[in-house]
Amino acid sequence: MAVDDRKARTFSQITGQDRQTLTAAYLHVLIGESLLDTRKTAGSPAAHGALTWPFQAWQRKGEKVVHGGHLWSALEQPQANGPARFPGWFPDAYETFAKKLLDQERAHPCYFGVQGQQRGNNWFTLFDSSFPEEHGVHALADSLVAFREQARRGPKRQTLIVFAGPPEPHAELADHQAAFWTLLRDLSAVDTDPWPEGYPTDTASPAWQWCFAGEPWFTFMASPGYHHRDSRNLGPCLTLVFQTRRVFDGLSGSTVAGQAAKRRIRAALEHYDTVPPHPYLGDPMYSSVHKWRQYALPDDQSVGEPEKCPFAG
Q: Against a cut of 0.90, is the pTM above it?
C-alpha cells in the first residue's frame, strides 16, 4: 500500500490487505485528537471528530513519551515494528470511544475528558486475559505505574483509559461491575508499594478510596451494559478510567472552581442520560465521601442497602 500523507481515510473504510498492513502501526499508537490532521478546517471530516488515519503524526515538541508498561498516547509516532500481538478487537473499540467523546452534535458531559482527547492528554492501554504476558494484570500494573510518572509532569488533567476485552456488546452490567472490582483487587494483589500513609485501608471508612503504587486514585468503569446512564457507555467493551490525585488540584468540592465544574457536568448529565445524576455523586458543594460508590454506578437511581464496598470481597 502506498503511503500518501496527503490522504486520510477512516480506519473502518480500510479493508482487506490494506487494513492488515496498517494494523501493527495502528495498534502501536492509540490515536486521538493530535493524530487527526491538526490543520483541519471547518467542514472537513476531522473538524467533526471523524477518526482518520493521516499517515503522518506530529509529536509535541519537548515532551518525552513514556514507554513503560503498555502505555500509549496520540503523541507517539506510528511504528510498524511495534509489538506483534494485539487483540483484533482493539481498533474498533478505540474508534468507538474516540467518536463518542468527539461527537459535536451530542456533546459528552465530561468536558475534561473531551478536552483531554482533543489535546492529546488522554493516555491508553488495554487488558486482555487471553494475552497474559502482553496484556494481563502485571502488564496493566506496569501501565498504571508508567501513567503515574507521566501524570506527575505536564498538564494536570491527564487521564488513563483502559480497554478491557474482548468486547461483550450484550454483556450484563452486573457482570462488568463484578469484573471491574475483581480487576482492582487483582491489581492490588500485585502492587509492590505500601498503602499510602493517611489513607484508610478499611473500606468501611467514609474516607476510603482505592490506592495503588503508593498513592490514591479516582477510577470508574464504563460498559455497554449501561442503557440509561449513557455517559458511562464508552464502547463495546468494559472500559476503566484512572486519574491520579493531581488531576483534582484546585477542583475539590470545597473550591469555587470545583463546585462550578461539578454543577456544569451534572447539568450536562441531565440532558445526556435518560436518568438524573445518581445520588452517589453527592452534593456539588462538598467533597464526596465513600468515593467507591461512584466507581461503578447503577444504571438506575437505586441505592444499595445494606452498603458494603465490593472491593472487600
A: no
